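tool_call: predict_structure(chain=1)
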Amino acid sequence: MSKYILHKEDSRHHEYNDWLDSKKTFSFGDYYNPKRIHFGALRVFNDDIVKAQKGFGKHPHDNMEIISIPLEGSLIHQDNLGNEEVIRAGEIQVMSTGSGVFHSEYNHETDTATRFLQIWIYPSALNVTPHYGRLTLKDEWFDHRFGTFVAPVASEKAAMIHQDAYLSMGRFSADETFQYTIQQNGNGAYLYVIDGTVEIDGHVLSAGDALGISETAAFDGRVKSGNATLLVVDVPMNIQL
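tool_result:
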């Protein structure tokens, strides 16, 4: 029987200061909730809004797979590996931080805020050689279906991370039904509603809500009203921490 973990938008930790508006699903930084440490290999899921020309100064990471998904605006990334890139809505970046990386990330816009999803996934191996990648997403990959854009093996349509994990997105119309198939035995799916309202196995989810689903091979859903954009983080559930 499927297991569910429901995270409503208003249950997430909300931090706000003069440059950052951040909604955190799992314990992060000064926020600690023993009931919300991780979902399988998914360690961090933050929905961040960064004011113009503001951002995260140079700081270290190691042994984590970090995916940034701009939803509005753009980010400029710099790291000690020599990468300096601007990623915009419709693009993603991935960092396998492995043995250690220093990087910074700023809103590249001069007068508008940038909203992006910050996702951390535990790696399958420690102290790998750090790696940076980016990918331009195409709308047709996601229209009326789930398209995978992060995977354990790189391709023209997917950036690579060091974990048996997959990120997929789908865009669906009002009253449209959809199905998602778990991509590997032992994985679970963490579905986040970017916009729209959907119903999955009796759970009604609106923008900012998330549903963790495990111990199942697939799940079905339906869009209740308007259009919906959904993100699924498909991760191993049994991991050594």
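agent: The two ends are 26 Å apart (CA to CA). Proceeding to next step.
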